[in-house]
Amino acid sequence: MQVTETLSEGLKRELSITVPAADLAGRLDKRLAELKDTVRINGFRPGKVPTAHLKRLVGPQEMAKIVDTVIGESIRVALETRDERPALNPDIDLAEGVAAEKVVAGEADLVFTASYELLPTFEIQDWTGVELERPVVEVGEDEVDARVAQIAESNRPFVDKTEGAAATGDRVKIDFVGSIDGVPFENGSAEDADLVLGSSTFIPGFEDQLIGVSVGDEVTVTVTFPADYGAAHLAGKEAAFAVKVKAISAPGELVVDDEWATKLGLESLARLREVVKEQIGSQYAAATRTKIKRALLDKLDEQYRFDLPSKLVDGEFDNIWNQAQQEMTGAGKTFADEGTTEEAARADYRKIAERRVRLGLVLSEIGEKREVKITDEEVSRALIERARQFPGQEKQVFDYYRSNDMALATLRAPIFEEKVVDLILAEAKVTDKPVTKDELLADPDEA
Q1: Is beta strand 429-434 parallel, antiparallel or unpaired with respect to 183-196?
Q2: What's the rounded Cα separation, in Å, for the pair 359 and 112?
C-alpha cells in the first residue's frame, strides 16, 4: 500500500492511497480457496469445484466485498501511522481514470483519495481558578401553601346543581363543535368535556359566554383565537362553537386536613407539605443546575479559541437551522416578525453552532484526559427514560437503540457531558448566591 499526502491545509487533509492489483488478487485467491470447500454448485461435488469456474461465478461479487474491506483497512492503517484523529469518517473517491470494473476484475490497482478534517489539538486550560456563582432559592412556606391550595382546588368536589343557572366557579359538562366560516376545524370538538367557569382553561371569552346557561341549553360561543396561538392555522381567527350544556355542578366544601391528604395517598397533611416542598426544591435545583452550567460554558467559551472542523460546524448548524424553521413554521411567524432577517439569523445560528462544537470538543478532551467513564447501568437508565416517552412502543424503542450504535451514542453523549461538567464544578471556585424565585427562573436570553 502506498500513501501520499496531497492536501494539508489547516485541519483539512487529503491522502492518495494505492493498493496494488496483486494484493487484491491475492486476497481473492484466498477467499475463493475458503469458498471452494463449502460452496455447493450443481454438477460438482463439495470441494471439487474448479477454481477458475468458481472465480467466473462469484469472483466479481467477492472482489467488490474485498475492495470495500481494503478501503476501510487502508484508511485505518494510514491514520494510525500518521497518528491522526479525523473529526468524521473520511470521504472516499476513486481516482479519475481508474475504472471500478477493472479494479473489481483485478486488472487495475485500487487508487482512491481519502478526504477528511482533523480534530483540533489544544491545551486544556486550568479551571480550578474559574469563579462561578450558583444561584439558589430557599423554598418558602408561602410557596408550599400556594401549591397545596392549587392541589386542593384541582381536587375540589363538585355537587350536581339542580336549580339555577351556571355561575363563575361552577363546573359545566358540555359537548361542543368549533368551526371557522362554517367549516369545522381539526381538534375543535369534544364530548362530555368538563370546564370550570372562571378557570381560564379555554380560549379567552369562551367561559364568560357560558355564565347564565342552564342544563339542556344549546348556545353558540364566538371567540377569536389569540394572535400567538400555538396552531398557526387558527391564530388570530374568529371561531364559532356550537355548545350543548349537559350538566352543571356547584363547587362543594373543601377541607384541607389529614383526612383529605389520605385521599391523595399520603398519610397526613404534614407529609403532603413535605412532598410539595421537595418537588418545588427539585424544580429550583434543576433551574440552578441550568444556570450554573450555562455560566460555566460561558467561561469555557471565553478560554478557548481554535480552528473548528467545518463539517462538524455545518452539521450542527443544519440541526439548529432546521429546528428553528420548524418552530417558526409551526408558529406561523417570519424572520420579520422576529425583528431580523434570514441572513442575520443564519449568522447568529452559525455562531451558536460554532460555540456548541467548540465546547463539545473541549468537554470531550477534558473527559478523555480525566478518564470519565459511562457505565452500562447509566446508559440503560437513559434508554428506559427514552422508551417511556413512547407509550406502547417501548419494545420498538429498545430494539432500535440496541441495534444502532449511532443512536445509542446520542444517549451516551449527554451523560458524558453532565459528568464532565460535574467534574469541573467540583474543582472550580463555586459560591452560592441567594436569589429570588423570579431571578432564578428568568430567561437569560430575554434581555
Answers
A1: unpaired
A2: 34
Confirm if 439 and 287 have CB atoms less than 8 A apart.
Answer: no
User: How many Å apart are CA 378 and CA 412, to the nearest integer?
Assistant: 8
The domain containing residue 298 runs over which residues?
A: 261-306+370-441
Residue 192 belongs to a domain with what CATH number? 3.10.50.40
| Rounded to 5°, angle at Cα 106 from 100 and 108 | 60
Q: Based on the domain organization, do 227 and 291 belong to the same domain?
A: no
356-411 pLDDT, tens digit per residue, is 999 999 999 999 999 999 999 999 999 999 999 998 899 999 999 989 888 899 99
User: What phi and psi values does residue 17 have, to the nearest 5 degrees?
Assistant: -120, 130
Same domain, 266 and 195: no
CA distance 350 to 373: 31
Confidence (pLDDT) at 44: 64
Asked whether residue 226 is domain-assigned, the answer is: yes
Q: Which of 117, 145, 168 is the last residue of a domain?
A: 117
Taking the alpha carbons at both ends of the chain, their separation in whole angstroms is: 59
Strands 12-19 and 2-9: antiparallel
DSSP conformational letter for 313: H
Residues in the chain: 447
Least confident of 86-100, 214-228, 238-252, 414-428: 86-100
On whether the CB atoms of residues 107 and 18 are closer than 8 A, the answer is: no
Query: How many structural domains does the chain have?
Result: 3
In a domain, 361, yes or no: no
User: What one-character-per-residue DSSP string does 8-22 give?
Assistant: EETTEEEEEEEE-HH
Contact 232, 329 (CB under 8 A): yes
Confidence of residue 447 (pLDDT cuts 50, 70, 90): very low
CA Rg value for the chain: 33
pLDDT tops 70 at residue 37: no
Mean pLDDT of 76-91: 94
- Helix-helix angle 269-303:141-154, to 10 degrees: 120
Q: Are 245 and 214 in contact (CB under 8 A)?
A: yes
Are 104 and 194 members of one domain?
no
Answer yes or no: is 301 within a domain. yes
Residues 276 and 388 in one domain: yes
List the single range of 49-63, 371-385, 428-442 with lowest mean pLDDT: 49-63
> Cα 386 to the chain's mean position, in Å?
10
Q: What's the CA gap between 309 and 275, in Å, rounded?
A: 48
CA nearest neighbour of 296 among 145, 159, 423, 163: 423
Mark whether 162 and 294 lie in a shared domain: no
